[in-house]
Amino acid sequence: MAVFPASSPAATAGESLIEEVESALTDRYQTTVPQPVRRALGLRKRDRIRYAFRANGEVVLQRACPEPVEDDPALAPFLALLQEDIAAHPERLLPITANLAGRLQELVGGIEVNLDAPLPGDDDCAGDLATDVTV
User: Fold this and answer.
1) Of the candidates 35, 79, 80, 96, which lies 20 to 30 Å from 9 by C-alpha distance?
2) In 3D, which of 50, 119, 122 has the Cα closest to residue 130?
3) Which three-class secondary structure state does DSSP give residue 51?
4) What is the CB-side half-sphere exposure of residue 19 using CA atoms within 13 A?
5) pLDDT of 133 over the 50 cut
6) Measuring CA to CA, which residue among 121, 42, 117, 104 is closest to residue 134?
7) What radius of gyration do the chain's Cα atoms show?
């Protein structure tokens, strides 16, 4: 990968580049998105990218918004099982009492979770899960 300075000829009139990178195509027209580009776009494994074509011949790489995720194939069978169990054993359903709500608050009340933090990848250690949780 090559990193070019802002004085590169790729800079268009009126625009100043902060950084420019390049990557090579394989025989199958595939490439690796360079790390500075992944960082700038906030890309993670399995994310999708979009190519926008401009009239002046430029191609702009963007992070694509995720498409609506189809239902998890395990969710419908699980919900059906839950529905059958509730219908067969309604006596097992218990209300959440004030005591139970208080106990839950004692257990997790001081924990802050960053829902915007990325989940660890397959090759990340499971021990890193707690790094974004503050007590």
Assistant:
1) 35
2) 119
3) strand
4) 11
5) no
6) 117
7) 25
**DSSP H helical ranges for the chain:** 35-41, 75-88, 98-108
The length of the chain, given as a count of residues:
135
Cα distance between residue 12 and residue 40, in whole Å: 20
Q: Percentage of the chain with pLDDT > 70?
A: 72
| Secondary structure (3-state) at 129 | helix
Spatial separation of the C-alpha atoms in residues 5 and 18, rounded to whole Å: 7
Buried b (16+ CB within 10 A) or exposed e, 80-108: eeeeeeeeeeeeeeeeeeeeeeeeeeeee
**Residues 88-112: what's their mean pLDDT?**
90
Q: How confident is the model at residue 2 (pLDDT cuts 50, 70, 90)?
A: very low
Report d(CA 67, CA 69) in Å as an integer. Answer: 6
Nearest Cα residue to 35 out of 21, 25, 48, 16:
21
| Mean pLDDT for the chain overall | 78
Q: Which amino acid is at 25?
A: L
For the chain, first and last CA: distance in Å? Answer: 41
Angle in degrees, CA 76, 80, 85, rounded to 5: 150
